Amino acid sequence: MTILQSESLKELGSALAKAQADMSPAGINSDNPFFKSKYASFASIVKSSRPALTKHGLSIIQRPLIADDGIAILATMMLHSSGEFIESRIKINPVKSDPQSYGSCLSYLKRYAYAAMVGVISDDEDDDAEGAMKSFRGSEQGAGRDIPIPAISTHEYNELTYELQGHQDILNQVLEGLKITSLREMPSNKYRASLTRVRELKAMKKEIDAKLGS
What we know:
The protein is α+β, with helices and mostly antiparallel strands and 214 residues long. 48% of the residues lie in helices and 20% in strands. It is built from seven helices and eight strands; from the N terminus they run βαββαβββααββααα. Helix 2 packs across helix 3 and helix 3 packs parallel to helix 6 (168-178).
């Protein structure tokens, strides 16, 4: 993720600190079928943060852009009434190039980038953080410190990508469940369980479609 910012963030930083003190946690109101859990929707995150942001002269702008190298990115900018700003840019990388997959991927990234920029938390944040840390780190016995777990291999990535072709909704569940923005970031110790769950969900969708078509 690329970060851009104004020369000074003094006014913006002060305003954001005050706004965050006024924010309440986002409500948990959406289901994550992949890991059978609940999470805060984008609407819930915005609702819990926008009044405090507005009160302290802050606003958020999100827009898809095409970078100089032709890569599609989502730019999320926080603006302050002083003119100071900070902006993050993240690659838009849907499984397929069709409009539906692009839209689903963009919706997920907007939620992810907005929450990260604003610093809003949800009622399940502590559990989410702990789960994410367990996904990405393991304990080195006797060393008293954590060691990183490597990401999935190219072969594993290709297999998951193949399985998820035409299933952007399931991909979004994978990313949301593991708190990652791309399959490339998946920790290797989550690969087998994720692949199994993806196949289960595909089978369930196929069965439902068959019933609806009969």
